[in-house]
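User: Hi! Is it possible to get a structure for several chains at once, not just one? Here's what I have:
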Amino acid sequence: MSTLLGKVAVVTGSGNGIGRAIALAMAEAGAAVTVSDVLVEDGERTVREILALGGSAIFVRTDISVAAEAQNLIDTTVSALGGIDILVNNAGMGGSSARLHEIEPDDFDRVLDVNLRGTFLCSKFALPHFLAKRDGRIINIASTYGIVAAPKSAAYCATKAGIIHLTRQLAVDYGPDQIRVNAICPGYIDTSLGRRAALLSAEELVDASARREKAAAMQPLGRQAQPSEVASVAVFLAGDGASFMTGSIVTVDGGCTTTFNYGEASN
Ligand SMILES: NC(=O)c1ccc[n+]([C@@H]2O[C@H](COP(=O)([O-])OP(=O)(O)OC[C@H]3O[C@@H](n4cnc5c(N)ncnc54)[C@H](O)[C@@H]3O)[C@@H](O)[C@H]2O)c1
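Assistant: Yes, the chains can be modeled jointly so their relative placement is included. Here is the combined structure:
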């Protein structure tokens, strides 16, 4: 598997979860990877894991919602690794679990800033490099919640829907320059509830995990996925095997957006 040999990939939010798995998989496929996260220890751990596999990686601490930091991420990658071929806009956050009238304006803004503005900023600074060589691949990590709505997650759902349509829009604007832009919509992926787990008590975590397991069990494939099952799709989209794919919204969701749970009605 050396489909990305000689390529340079930037993966945001790759200190943990899906981003970490994508960084590892891209390195295994031969890419030199810039691991990026707000969490320094976590990002550096991913770099060590890549180096231990014989891969090549650097870490650049970045809050993707801050323009100067997003620019520094791309600039440092280009100067340290010799260019950029692949950008994976993965970093994201869920926001508070509440109905819209209960959400504080600042909390809503923060989810928009990280999920949507962060995707905009990293793309903005990577695109001039892609334009210069008429080649480049952007993979946006959206969500099934950008396709179907979920309870108590207005900001998250709105940003993920925004990322899906931004993906299509960028495909239109940059297709003539041979820059491909695609999105992945993961369903239930077992990332230990992401960083949110750290905010929950042990009891809340057991409860939330059980609810998640139960929800995943009702979907066609009947389980959560491992982050590596999203990463393999990202590697494919970044490689030449996906050379005629742009503007595609690829669900990696165990079938959950293909149907709804019929429950007892199916008997
Ligand atoms: N896990 C799932 O079930 C699932 C489902 C659908 C979509 N997603 C999406 O996949 C992506 C990754 O999710 P995950 O489950 O791996 O989450 P995670 O919380 O395990 O990892 C996200 C990483 O992003 C980093 N991050 C957060 N804000 C950042 C910022 N402003 N700048 C830079 N880094 C930042 C975090 O520190 C963390 O390391 C997110 O965009 C998420 O919305 C996840």
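The mean pLDDT is 95. The beta strands are 8-12, 32-37, 56-61, 86-89, 136-141, 179-186, 249-252.

User: Great, thank you!
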